[in-house]
Amino acid sequence: MSKRVLITGGGSGIGKAMAQAFAVDGARIFVTDMDEAALAQCPNSWLKMTGDASDPEHMRAVFACISDEWDGIDVVCANAGIAGPTALVEDVEPEDFRRCVAVNLEGAFLAAKYAAPMMKAQKSGVILITSSNAGINGFPNRSPYSSAKWAVIGLMKTLAMELGPYGIRANAIAPGCVEGPRIDGVIAREAKAKGTTPEAIRAGYEAGVSMRSFVSAQDIANMAVFLASDGARLVSGQVIAVDGHTENPDPKV
């Protein structure tokens, strides 16, 4: 029977790559995103819902639809997230900090909260949370983002403990720098803050990675499909970095 897979933040980037990879694997797909135009570009065969992953009412509606359409859920990819501000901690506005944490952390919490009863009832399921190597190493000038990505690892490990007795696994994927518009924006903002060029910042990031390379959204999607498979049936409570091995999380530029 084909897997029933929900991906939050699935309209573009890593989330869409995950959805496409699971679809190729034969899964039924449900994607949510705040970007209605991005969702409109997704295949019509996918279930879709526009909304904010950190909004409890939206997430309640998502899982009500899942219950009606599928009567259960096999895989939840809590992927929705935002980059947050790029600034020294003393220059970060409290509301910007809260918003970044809300989307990245509370969005994952809500996905797990509403998935857990369904998965417990069927005594199976996989919850995958998108963290970051910023959630392993820290990230200067990105305190809201790094804080949230550290926090989702604590959430994931607790889910693995609470839900493991019901046959449910939880893991986190920690991407490195993923090629695409989001990291381009981060690099541009950091270059401005440091008074240098985006090219210099990019070179510094690459120099801090053993494999001297950024990763692709497909690399992350491939890991998600594996972690949701029977090949990873006893992998739970783990943080899996897909980053080419970060040696230095704060390369000096």
Automatic annotation (TrEMBL):
Keywords: Oxidoreductase. It comes from the Bacteria. It holds the Pfam family adh_short_C2. SUPFAM superfamilies: NAD(P)-binding Rossmann-fold domains. InterPro entries: NAD(P)-bd_dom_sf, Sc_DH/Rdtase_CS, SDR_fam. Gene3D superfamilies: NAD(P)-binding Rossmann-like Domain (3.40.50.720). Signal peptide: none annotated. Belongs to the short-chain dehydrogenases/reductases (SDR) family. This is SDR family oxidoreductase.
